[in-house]
From TrEMBL:
This is Imm63 family immunity protein. InterPro entries: Imm63 (IPR028952). Pfam families: Imm63. Residues 3-78 form the Immunity protein domain.
Amino acid sequence: MFYIISERGQEYERKMTDKIDDLLYWIFANVTFSMACDYELKNRIEYKDCRRIMFDKQEELLGLLNKNWQQKENAEHQNILKNHPFDDLAGLRATYCGQLRQQGLSETEINKLAYEKYPKN
C-alpha cells in the first residue's frame, strides 16, 4: 500500500507499507493535523507558541481513535521540538519585525531590536 501526498502534479511525500495500521495512522495523522490547526487558530493565545495548542489537540484527537497513534505522534512532536524548540514570543516578534520593516530599518537592525524586545526562550 502506498500513501502519496501530491498537489497539482507535484509529489511531496510517498510512503509504502504492508500494514493497514501504518496506512490508517498516516491518513489520520494528516486529518487530525488539519483539525488541530483549525482549533489552534480559533483558540490562539498570543504569548504561546501555536504548536503547544496544536500538538496537544492533535495528540488528543488521535488518542480518541487509537492510543498507540497518540503515543506515536507524541514521539514525532518531541523529535520536532529537539531541533525546533517552542518559542512563545515568535508571533509577537514577527509582528514587531513587520512594524520595524515599515519604518524602513535594515534587517540587521530589525533583528537586533526584535530579539531585544522579545528574546528567544
